[in-house]
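Researcher: Next sequence.
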Amino acid sequence: MVAEQTKVVLMPDTLYNADDREAIATLIHKETSCFRNLDFDGWAACYLQSPRTCTVSAAPGIGVTVLRGWDAIRDDMASALALGHTPCGMSDFRKDNMQITIDGDIAWAIYDGWTQADDGSEASSIETVILERTGKSWHIVYSAFAQSRMTRTAPDRIGLDAKGHVVWTTPAAAEALRTHPALTLSYGRLRARRGDWDKVLQAAITRAGALHGFYNHHDFVDTTGAPFRMPVVLGEDETGAAMICSLLVMDGLTYLDINPTADFNRRLVAAQMVFGLSPGQMALATRIASGESLTDAAETMRISINTARTHLKRIYDKTGVNSQTALVRLLLSVG
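Model: Next structure:
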């Protein structure tokens, strides 16, 4: 098991009582350490075992879980630890920028959390803990955990701020970006390799960045029925292949998916129904939308280039466009 590398930073502007602040920071560290090490009794000792105790957990793709009362909290954790392995696969954790405020026998702490799992994936969070002092000991009476982002489910994803600066990535995405034919980094900012492509990319990033605020994105979801997700067709390379990526707004960031296969496939199936594409035409459209040139697509499909050109002409006739870039933009706008 990986040794802990927890770093607790106590902000100087919250100085009240050094001994109490240190005891609170130690207790918060102990609660996570016992959780990671499957030590139920040690974990339980950190809490005020009262009907007033409450925990709130929130994570992208999972939702919000609220547990009220010690019995519900105890039973939930006992069930999780009974699996015999650390929930979330946690192998390491850290708590940074801890700010502790104390008022009599009540204290609250706010800090940034970071965890790493056995498979190398990472997650960051914002956490809030309220504590009560009983006798000489502090105990947790309220704990809120809001996971801001995670890497496990998105190996080819890059997180951007509203101006396109990279603030988060995975090793796989960083490696893919180094050799990507259309995308690159310039002084920490995501750019396209050609000026005309970059103009399209920056306009899309600006549009997504306008929705980073909770209420703006909430209004977008209310209006459209889904979070902001936009395929971005940058243009064509010298072989005619379409250069494509996809943007998603979530967690107050813009995520760029380098290989957004699942979302594209869903849109292409919808486009096949809308435009009445035959199986052969659909297969060619899928190859083109994945970034292949007409020649490469024909080779992948094991058909002649003339057959591929015939399929493409009929697709143009059905969709009303006359270039591969326009075709991909149209197909990916459906659904």
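Model: DSSP finds eleven helices and 13 strands in the chain. The domain at 12-150 is CATH 3.10.450.50 (Nuclear Transport Factor 2; Chain: A,).
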